[in-house]
Amino acid sequence: MCIALRDTIGVDILVVRYKKCRMTRDSFISIWGSMAALARSIGEGETTVRNWFLRGSIPVRYDKRIIQAAKDAGRTISHEDMFALREEISESAEDAA
What we know:
Blueprint: E1 3-9, E2 14-20, H1 25-30, H2 35-42, H3 46-55, H4 63-72, H5 79-96
Antiparallel strand pairs: 1-2
Helix pairs in contact: 2-3
């Protein structure tokens, strides 16, 4: 989990502000350890998952299985995380083209 902290000390008051970071390709894959493990956890072939990143697009129809697979792995992925991930991999694919 990525957390940015900001401390402000006042009269016996400590304020800590947490900021959740965007889901990235690397943080997403790290949940399972590899694309192959992710593919197995959602019942797809590794080529399917690898192609998502090559073309810069994860079809929405996989969201439910991905979110459940992350939960099974002891992690939480939200729809907002999936949106951020799609933005990141789309930009990466455009840069590579």
